[in-house]
Amino acid sequence: MLRRIFDSAWLYFAAAGLLLAFAVASQFHLQIPSRAKGTVDDIVALSGRDDLNVIFILVDTLRADRLGVYGYERDTSRFMDDLGRHGIVFKHVIAQSSWTKSSMASLWTATNPRKNGILRFNHSLPEDALLPAEVFQQAGFRTAGIWRNGWVAPNFGFGQGFDTYVKPVSSPERRKLQRGNPSARALKGTDLDVMDSAVEFLRNFGNERFFLYLHLMDIHQYVFDDQAPDYGSSYSDAYDKSVNWTDRTIGAFLHEIDDMDLLTKTVVVIGSDHGEAFQEHGHEGHARNLYREVAEVPFIIMLPFVLEEGIVVDSNVPNIDMWPTVLDMVGLLPLEGVDGVSQLPAILAAGGAPSESGTEGLERPIYAELDRRWGNGQSDPNPLVGVTDDQVRVFVPLNDPEKAELYDWATDPTEQNDQAGERADEVASYREMATRYVADDDPPWGVEAGTIEIEEMQLNQLKALGYRIEQ
Ligand SMILES: [Zn+2]
User: Fold this and answer.
1) pLDDT per residue as tens digits for the range 375-417
2) Among 271, 349, 360, 379, fewest CB within 10 Å belongs to which?
3) CA distances from 358 to 242, 309, 346, 362 (A)
4) Residue 355 predicted with pLDDT over 80
5) Residues near 221 by beta carbon (within 8 Å), at least 6 away in sequence
6) Residue 454 lies in domain
7) Number of structural domains found in the chain
8) Strand-pair category, 210-216 with 142-147
9) Rounded to the nearest 5 degrees, what angle is found at the Cα of 17, between the Cα atoms of 12 and 23?
């Protein structure tokens, strides 16, 4: 029945009711009203609850530093800021790659790119891989994924564990929206289509336990409305307007689910797959390198209650820790043999209630990888490995390791001043770490990633997002 609703024109008319909700959220930046106050003890108790749902909102292409709760001076994100201030914010989160498919493969499977093997445009996760949706499904949750980015399409292996996994129909635009990304204009529809389908899902299945994944794309396309603040006219300004628009879209959605009385039994997780560059290192966009502007992403958890004072986890955390953490928090089985670890002890420690297991070993070197020829099926790999270790960031091009770069966030937070020459000994040890990282390439599910043939239509849709791909 759900599939019929997603595919039917009925949505176009059903949307009339939502229009009001979205209009409201564009004017107010409200706290979600109906959750009670909670404490760190209530976080501990989450794993014992049998009524919890989880919603994961993946905001594609969202740089952490463009959100107020991560220190941005512009008023782009009052809503997400508020969620963070009364929930959990991971302050320094590093994605494992800088383009969607590779990064999402790591985020979902809690394994580094070299281990899961999703490094190129035609790689696909095998059925043997274990994804969080399968854990939810096996635990009896109703699972649905609603996505607008072709890189997480089912033929790349990302539909595993979802009862429903759909790209929503694009409805006629209900308000005048602008698209500010010059290289990526052709994606039909907006994130309102995702939210429509999500609300439909909740109206049908909100009385069951559910896991709902929403993959938003408007920031990737720099979509914004006329209520976004007038920050200016550069690409970077258009991007900020889109962050503001997306923030209000998320706010409107949360008001919708509050009206369904679901917020007191739902954990909402907000994350991203990579950031976006605005000439910090000579490029616009992403998927070309692993510098901070394309690597550092938000990770915010909205709890089913309001913390008087939000919990901030200050240590460096990789995206591969996201699902080990959330599964642990809600009391589900862990993903076995993975690189990611649960940061729940770090959350509890930051909230003043240290757990027995302690936080030792939770902060460790973080790896990222980008095959700089990921879009070309014919050429040899050109892998770049990134290592983040405390405040030091090192990038090792494996084909030419002598050209490694080292940056120190303590003195150079925007990674402009390469110190590899002065700190050669350190670089040498990081080069060794990169070599060890590459050798650690057996996936815990025992089956290597496959290569698939992509049909012309899907290929064109992926190119329309702004990438060069040659099969
Ligand atoms: Zn992406």
Assistant:
1) 988 899 999 999 999 999 999 999 999 999 999 999 999 999 9
2) 360
3) 40, 22, 8, 9
4) no
5) 179, 180, 181, 184, 185, 187, 242
6) 366-464
7) 2
8) parallel
9) 105
- pLDDT at 12 (0 to 100): 38
The per-residue pLDDT for range 225-278, each reduced to its tens digit, is 999 999 999 999 999 999 999 999 999 999 999 999 999 999 999 999 999 999
- Are 13 and 154 in the same domain? yes
429 CA → ligand 1 middle, Å: 31
Question: Do 135 and 49 fall within a single domain?
Answer: yes
Q: How far away, in angstroms, is 3 Cα from ligand 1 center?
A: 25
Nearest to residue 306, comparing CAs of 16, 5, 33, 36? Answer: 36
CA 277–ligand 1 middle distance (angstroms): 13
The CA 99 to ligand 1 mean position distance, Å, reads: 5
* CA 61–ligand 1 middle distance (angstroms): 5
370, 297: one domain: no
**Cα 106 to middle of ligand 1, angstroms:** 13
From the CA of 213, how far away is ligand 1's center (Å)? 15
CA of 212 to the centre of ligand 1 (A): 19
Q: Cα of 57 to ligand 1 centre, how many Å?
A: 13
Ligand 1 centroid – CA 13 distance (Å): 30
What number is the average pLDDT over the span 115-122?
97
Distance 338 CA to ligand 1 centre (A): 23
The answer to whether residue 355 sits within a structural domain is: no
**Separation of CA 273 and ligand 1 centre (Å):** 5
Distance 185 CA to ligand 1 centre (A): 15
The pLDDT value given to residue 34? 67
Residue 25 predicted with pLDDT over 70: no
Find out whether 299 and 96 touch, Cβ atoms under 8 Å: no
Is 66 contained in some domain?
Answer: yes
Q: Which helix (H) or strand (E) holds 57?
A: strand 53-59
Please report the pLDDT score of residue 454 as a whole number.
92
Cα 145 from Cα 25, distance rounded (Å): 24
Report how far ligand 1's centroid is from the alpha carbon of 7 (Å).
25
Residue 76 falls within a domain, yes or no?
yes
DSSP-assigned letter for residue 321: G
243: CA distance to ligand 1 center in Å? Answer: 14
Q: DSSP assignment of 221-256, as one string?
A: TTEEETTS----SSHHHHHHHHHHHHHHHHHHHHHH
